[in-house]
Design a protein that fits this description.
This is Ferritin-like domain-containing protein. With 135 residues, the protein is an all-alpha fold. It has one domain (2-134). The protein is built from six helices and no strands. It has helices at residues 2-11, 16-40, 43-48, 55-77, 94-119, 126-134. α2 (16-40) packs antiparallel against α4 and α2 packs antiparallel against α5 (94-119).
Length: 135
């Protein structure tokens, strides 16, 4: 498997050495954002703050997607992958977390839209992420 990872990594040299890190960094921070909030707020916290009963479950799905993006991009970059650091996000309740989530996802969609012309031209793991973000 190590040999396969090395071969895959070599396919991503060149343009992908710029595109992949540019997409990994915000994915790492978004993953930390969702994980932190879900560790801080229970399902009851979401409901008591006026969010729908299904809201926490949806954020759990988004958190899983972000973690999958981090794993995919990190495996492609290998030792050059961005590592998480300590983040401090300005949410104080599930509703402020949800509002900030909307902002962060909007930025993420815009980043993929801006890079789409480059992502489509290469064998790039961002292609699948880009399709998912477009939904």
């Amino acid at each position: 498997m190590i040999v396969i990872e090395r071969k895959v990594t070599h396919l991503y040299l060149g343009l992908n050495s710029v595109v992949l890190p540019a997409h990994l960094r915000p994915s790492v921070s978004r993953s930390a954002f969702y994980t932190g909030a879900l560790n801080n707020f229970t399902g009851d916290d979401f409901i008591n703050d006026g969010l729908p009963q299904w809201a926490r479950g949806r954020f759990e799905q988004i958190a899983a997607h972000e973690q999958a993006h981090v794993q995919l991009l990190s495996s492609a970059l290998g030792a050059n992958a961005t590592q998480a650091c300590n983040y401090s996000f300005p949410y104080t309740s599930p509703s402020s977390f949800a509002a900030l989530s909307q902002l962060l996802e909007g930025v993420g969609v815009s980043a993929y839209a801006g890079a789409a012309q480059y992502i489509r031209k290469t064998r790039n793991p961002c292609r699948g992420i880009m399709r998912m973000k477009a939904r």
